[in-house]
Write a structure and sequence with these properties.
With 226 residues, the protein is an all-beta fold. It has a domain of 109 residues. The strands form two sheets. Strands 1, 2, 6, 7, 8 and 9 form a six-stranded mixed beta sheet that branches. The chain is flat, with a radius of gyration of 24 Å.
């Protein structure tokens, strides 16, 4: 199935929380071999945006927050050749997405691994369109001073560019430029006096991500609901 939900203010790159629940299942036996089924699914969708907040430290509530230890952005070239199932005269389109991303922090570095999943659509020598899927694994590391094995990692990959070239009727060369943002945080506890937010923004925020924690102030980022 496929559907969409109207959420005013939602734009590409925001965080999405989705909860689906089957509300009702109806069925009717139309004949001895034909069964009609109807399923009603309820979707709850929340869109949040990560923003920076100033938290005044004091003697108020004790909060568990993520203190930023370091962050970095890197670009990686994922290049490969694939043998097409059929002879081709033209590549119509390649659609790619990043899947199964994992990250591991070591001293001063973060190791990122994952898969670029691609859907290749091409025109065969018989002028018919064909489809072929492939998974290309990748692995690289990002230098982040402050990274350590016991710290938390936040990874956001993004496919920046896809290029391809048909070397012959069966051999396809592909290049994917992957941009990855990596942030390393450490879970700490701080006491705050108040949360300073715009009067137009909901004060219910979670989780906090803070940096530059001093004796009187902490600059944090948090997910705010639209």
């Amino acid at each position: 199935f496929s559907t969409f939900v109207d959420v005013p203010g939602a734009i590409t790159g925001m965080n999405v929380e989705l909860r689906a629940e089957v509300e009702h299942i109806g069925f009717e036996l139309l004949s001895e071999t034909l069964l009609l089924q109807q399923v009603v699914i309820q979707f709850f969708v929340k869109i949040t945006e990560t923003v920076q907040l100033n938290l005044n430290l004091g003697t108020g509530p004790l909060l568990k927050v993520e203190e930023v230890r370091g962050e970095n952005v890197t670009q990686t070239l994922v290049e490969n050749e694939i043998l097409l199932d059929r002879p081709s005269i033209k590549i119509r389109e390649i659609v790619a997405q990043v899947r199964d991303v994992t990250a591991e922090a070591i001293l001063g570095k973060v190791i990122v691994q994952g898969i670029v999943h691609k859907q290749i659509f091409y025109i065969g020598t018989d002028n018919l369109e064909y489809h072929q899927a492939e998974n290309v694994p990748f692995s690289f590391f990002v230098d982040i001073p402050g990274a350590a094995a016991d710290r938390n990692i936040h990874v956001r990959p993004f496919i920046e560019h896809i290029s391809f070239h048909l070397l012959d009727e069966r051999t396809l060369e592909q290049k994917v430029v992957l941009e990855t943002f990596v942030k390393v945080t450490e879970t700490v506890q701080i006491r705050v006096a108040e949360i300073i937010v715009s009067p137009y923004v909901s004060p219910y925020v979670s989780p906090y991500i803070c940096n530059n924690i001093t004796n009187t102030n902490a600059n944090c980022s948090a997910n705010l609901s639209l």
